Structure formats: structure tokens, C-alpha cells
Automatic annotation (TrEMBL):
Domain Peptidase C50: 373-469
Any one GO CC term of the record: cytoplasm
A GO term for molecular function: cysteine-type endopeptidase activity
Keywords of the record: Chromosome partition, Hydrolase
Catalysed transformations (reactions): All bonds known to be hydrolyzed by this endopeptidase have arginine in P1 and an acidic residue in P4. P6 is often occupied by an acidic residue or by a hydroxy-amino-acid residue, the phosphorylation of which enhances cleavage
Entry's Gene Ontology BP terms: meiotic chromosome separation; proteolysis
Protein EC: 3.4.22.49
Organism of origin: Exocentrus adspersus
UniProt cross-references to Pfam families, sorted A to Z: Separin_C
UniProt protein name: separase
């Protein structure tokens, strides 16, 4: 490190002497440090980027837990909300950094080997320190940190992606600003005519293509999960090592390069030739021999083709995206590399580790197991102004999950809402927003909630700069939550809800929900009718027990792209263990 950087790092160290700094100050300090450390050490930079995620939310979680331990406040539930505050709390600046890094690596090794964690962190931008207008959203470079869990011998690695640049004028394409504009426009379009809504749909599709092709480009392959057939991942890396050892033994090929190229192989079906070429040039920036580069590129493409040609089982385990709140507005699940894969979101590495420890005894092969799926509850149309939605959803619940309990067509009081939420293993809310207007936030946050929470209301899981909705249910003690990033229409949401639950939740119903006459059902007919000219009974009931995979599949039944893109999952991967029904 040169003298100028040494002086800068000393100044940063002095700034750290402020204990319990404001979240935004701590976040920017950590990102600034990562920026200057990255060229010397990936792992040190990754540690600082990890620390920069959700510092304010982590502080709140710790303070709430400590408040519960005080004499004047009793927890509603005897089960501890957080097993330890040490994992979530901001690290003391006087602590030994190398020890903290060792702890971080140990946590990654502890988590299920099936998981791949991909952290997306914005680059430090000094303009953020002086911008007072909270309607301005900058598109910055992004640090992609990749964590392969359950392995001690494979360190995380880091790649930084530049912002998209306009090829004509050379300026930055402000995709974050456009995404926020689409969300605002979507809310207005729902109250306007069909033509305006179609315009929003077109803009949303366009921005997903821009994220793929102009921003992340070849590096979207890093968002890929591990193959369920673990031998495929091993085979790819083995073939890469053998290739370089036999063909180009003089090249310096690090474990990071092998890891990156393995992801390129896995994503080659989605990548253009020029994108594969750029990834190879990133790994070997000093190679000038075009024939050598061409040989490496051809080998990568042939290796990817070989996996597909031999009919390999390319089904993958879940990817858990660790998203900065400024990037949470994007429907990452819709980009080509992820749209058919199981994906969940969390705000920080600390929160996913804490969730893992809270539910560790119930996690099998990377999924939290739900045994009592017939012990469900629902709240439908609590504000009494969505009558057609109420009829459609009650038709579904009465037919598909008749043992579930709940309310419909009236506003439950706080105690009734709380009882339904905390006594069930799966809880579905079908109404406006997230239901936060019906129940005390403080009461929820003093409770250990075991339910998988499904919030099918407008913007039910959105994260804005000053938005409490997701925080109400908390990312640190609810195992998994499904909901919407922005406003959606009730009919499209009902189609998605019933298709998802019909695929995921086993039922004793004689006929599959997919055979319901959706035209009649959408009209809110009181009686469920089935399509004609089908052999409806006697067909084997096949379910998708994995929540994330069922959700991804169910989105294909929805007509509006905006509704498909809005629906996301947060928290742990969840799987139903089916009984003999």
C-alpha cells in the first residue's frame, strides 16, 4: 500500500473511534475502506462490504432484543427472538479485523452447503454524502461478493461491475432512477387506463434487459446456484484445472480464476460469445495472444455444451441474494439467469446467519422443513372493499385448504390478527398492503413467529428509504416471507396466489386447482367450476414442495409482467415435507 493510502487508512481508523455511529455514516465508512483495500485483498474488502449492509436495521434489532431483556418489558413469547446479538451488532472498531474475518468465514462454512449467497453492494459514491434530495437515485458500480456456503477450503471472491454507459454520449445510464420512476408510474397506471399500464409493462421489460445486457453483462452468471448433482460442479472445476495444467501450464491460474470460469461455464447457455470473451480477459488481463484467448473461450463453450448435450441434471439449489436497500427495488428474479431458479432475498449476511441459527434444527438439505402445512390461517379482505377478491380467495381456501382457519369480509381486531399469525405454520394475508395498519408493530417485533408469512397485498414487502412495512415483520425472526415490491391488481394477484399455493401446498381435493375454469372463477362466481373435456379425477396429485421453486413456476400463469416481477421471497428457503394424504 502506498504512502498516500496509508495516511488515508489511518484517517479512516480514527473515524472508527466513534462507537455506535449513525447507520449511514458507518455504511459509507465501510464502503470507502473496501474501495481502497480491494486491490490488495479481496477478503478484507468483502469483510468491509459485509459490514456495510443494513447497519441501521441491525442496530434496531439489537436494541429491541436488549429492550426485551430489560425488567420493564416482557416478551410475548418465551422463545428467544435472537439467539445472540453478537452476530448482528456492528463490530467494535477496536476489535481485531483478522479475527472478525475468521468468524465471518466460519459462519459461511457453518451454513448449509446447498446455499450460494450473492451479495450486491453499491460502490462508494461521495455524492451520496452531499445529496439532500431523496428523489434522486444514482446508478453506481456494484461489488458482487460470492459466498459458497458449507466449505472451508473455498474463500469468497469479489468482482466489481461498472455502471451502464450510454454508447452515444458516454454518460451513465441511470437505471436505478428509471426503476423508481417505473414503480411510481405503476401506482398511477393502476388507477388509469389500460394503455398507460401497458407503457409501464414495456418499460419494466426494457429495464430488465438493460440490467442484463448493459449493466451486469457477463457477470450475471455469478448469480447462479449450485447444481443439485454436486458432481457437476466438481467436474467443471476439475476439467478447467486439467485444461490449464495440460495446455497452458505457464499461466498463473488462481482458485478465484477457476471459480469465476466455472460460473461462466454454468451460465454459458445465457451468455453471448463477447461476454464470455470479456470474462476470460478479466481473468487473464495480460494475455495478448489472440489464439490463446480463443482456445480458452472455445474450451469454456464446449464444456458448457457438453453438460447440456449429455442430458445432465442441471437443476440447482437456491440462490440467496444479499441486497443493499438501494438495489432491492429491482426484480432481480426476472433476469434470464434467475427466472427459472429458486431465489430468496435478505438484507445482510448477519441476518441470514441469524435466521439459520434460529431455525437450524428444522433445516434439512438447505431448506427449513414445514411439517404442519394443514395448520394454516388466512385473513381475507379485512378492509371490506375487495369483495370479488374475497369470493375468489375464499373459494380457493374452502376447496383446497378446508382445515385452515381465518377471517374474511371484516376487520379483525388486533388480538384476532395476532392469534392467527402466531398459531399457524403458514399464514396468508390477502388485502391492502401488509396488514401493518391492523396490528401493532411493537407487538409483532416482541414475538417469535414460526409461520411462513404470505403477504399478497400492494407493496407488502417493499423497502423504501423510510418504509416500515418489511421491518414490521422483521428479517431476523420470521423464517420466510413472500410479498410484493410494488402495487398490483387484485385479479392478477389472486391468480398468482392460488397457482402458487395450489402447486406448493398438498391437498385432499379430488381435482387439481389448475383445472378450475379461471374465466368463471375470475368473475367471482360463488361456486367453483372446472373446465370441460378433461379427465379431471384420478390424476396423480404432484406438488412442488420447495416454496421458492413453486413460486418461480407459478409466476408463469400470470398475464401481467409487472405482477410476476413484483412477487419476491425473503428469508430462508422453505420446503414442505408431505404427509400421506
Amino acid at each position: 500500500m502506498d504512502k498516500g493510502n496509508e495516511e488515508l487508512m489511518q484517517l479512516l481508523k480514527e473515524l472508527e473511534n466513534v462507537h455506535y455511529p449513525p447507520g449511514c455514516q458507518f455504511q459509507r465508512l465501510q464502503r470507502y475502506k473496501a474501495l481502497h483495500i480491494q486491490k490488495d485483498s479481496d477478503i478484507d474488502a468483502i469483510y468491509n462490504l459485509v459490514q456495510s449492509h443494513s447497519p441501521g436495521l441491525r442496530n434496531k434489532a439489537v436494541l429491541r432484543y436488549e429492550k426485551l431483556l430489560s425488567a420493564d418489558v416482557e416478551p410475548i413469547c418465551k422463545i428467544p427472538l435472537i439467539s445472540t446479538t453478537e452476530e448482528i451488532a456492528l463490530k467494535c472498531p477496536t476489535a481485531e479485523v483478522n479475527e472478525n474475518i475468521r468468524i465471518m468465514l466460519r459462519h459461511i462454512a457453518e451454513m448449509p452447503k446447498e446455499w450460494t449467497l450473492v451479495q450486491l453492494t453499491p460502490y462508494y459514491n461521495p455524492l451520496d454524502d452531499i445529496t439532500e434530495d431523496n428523489t434522486i437515485f444514482k446508478t453506481n458500480p456494484i461489488h458482487i461478493s460470492v459466498f459458497n456456503c458449507g466449505q472451508l477450503d473455498e474463500e469468497p471472491f469479489l468482482v466489481t461491475v461498472n455502471p451502464p454507459i450510454d454508447s452515444v454520449n458516454g454518460s451513465c445510464i441511470e437505471l436505478v432512477q428509471e426503476m423508481m420512476s417505473i414503480i411510481r408510474g405503476n401506482k398511477e397506471a393502476l388507477m388509469s387506463h389500460k394503455k398507460k399500464r401497458q407503457s409501464i409493462e414495456d418499460r419494466l421489460k426494457a429495464i430488465i434487459k438493460d440490467v442484463q445486457n448493459l449493466w451486469f453483462k457477463e457477470w450475471r452468471c455469478l448469480l447462479s446456484g449450485k447444481y443439485i448433482d454436486a458432481s457437476l460442479d466438481e467436474e467443471i472445476k476439475l476439467e478447467l484445472r486439467n485444461f490449464f495444467r495440460m495446455e497452458f501450464s505457464k499461466l498463473e491460474v488462481t482458485s478465484k480464476i477457476i471459480s469465476i470460469l466455472a460460473y461462466v461455464v454454468k451460465g454459458s447457455v445465457h451468455l453471448k460469445l463477447i461476454e464470455i470473451k470479456r470474462a476470460v480477459q478479466y481473468c487473464f488481463p495480460h494475455i495478448e495472444d489472440k489464439n490463446l484467448l480463443r482456445s480458452i473461450i472455445q474450451f469454456i463453450r464446449s464444456l458448457g455444451d457438453k453438460l447440456i448435450a449429455k442430458g445432465a441434471n442441471t437443476k440447482k439449489y437456491p440462490v440467496i441474494l444479499i441486497l443493499d436497500d438501494s438495489l432491492d427495488c429491482f426484480p432481480w428474479e426476472m433476469i434470464d439467469i434467475l427466472q427459472d431458479e429458486p431465489v430468496s432475498r435478505v438484507p445482510s449476511l448477519q441476518f441470514i446467519y441469524t435466521l439459520f441459527k434460529e431455525h437450524e434444527k428444522d433445516i434439512v438439505n438447505g431448506h427449513k422443513i414445514v411439517l404442519n402445512y394443514d395448520k394454516g390461517a388466512y385473513i381475507v379482505n379485512p378492509d371490506t372493499d375487495l369483495k370479488n377478491m374475497e369470493i375468489r380467495m375464499m373459494n380457493f381456501f374452502n376447496y383446497w385448504t378446508p382445515n385452515w382457519i381465518g377471517t374474511s369480509g371484516y376487520q379483525p381486531d388486533s388480538d384476532e390478527f395476532f392469534e392467527l399469525l402466531t398459531s399457524s405454520d403458514i399464514f396468508s394475508y390477502n388485502g391492502h398492503g401488509s396488514g401493518s395498519h391492523l396490528l401493532s408493530m411493537d407487538k409483532i417485533q416482541r414475538t417469535h413467529i414460526k409461520s411462513v408469512v404470505l403477504l399478497f397485498g400492494c407493496g407488502s414487502t417493499k423497502i423504501n428509504r423510510m418504509d416500515p412495512q418489511v421491518e414490521m415483520y422483521g428479517p431476523y425472526h420470521i423464517p420466510c416471507m413472500v410479498g410484493m415490491l410494488w402495487e398490483v391488481t387484485d385479479l392478477d394477484t389472486d391468480v398468482l396466489t392460488t397457482e402458487f399455493m395450489g402447486q406448493w401446498i398438498p391437498s385432499k381435493a379430488p381435482i387439481k386447482w389448475k383445472y378450475v375454469d379461471k374465466t368463471e372463477w375470475s368473475k367471482a362466481e360463488e361456486i367453483v367450476k372446472f373446465v370441460k373435456d378433461k379427465k379431471l379425477t384420478g390424476e396423480e396429485m404432484n406438488y412442488e414442495p420447495e416454496l421458492l421453486r413453486a413460486l418461480s413456476s407459478a409466476k408463469k400463469a400470470v398475464s401481467f409482467y409487472g405482477t410476476r416481477a413484483a412477487c419476491v421471497a425473503r428469508g430462508l428457503p422453505v420446503k414442505i415435507q408431505e404427509k400421506n394424504i
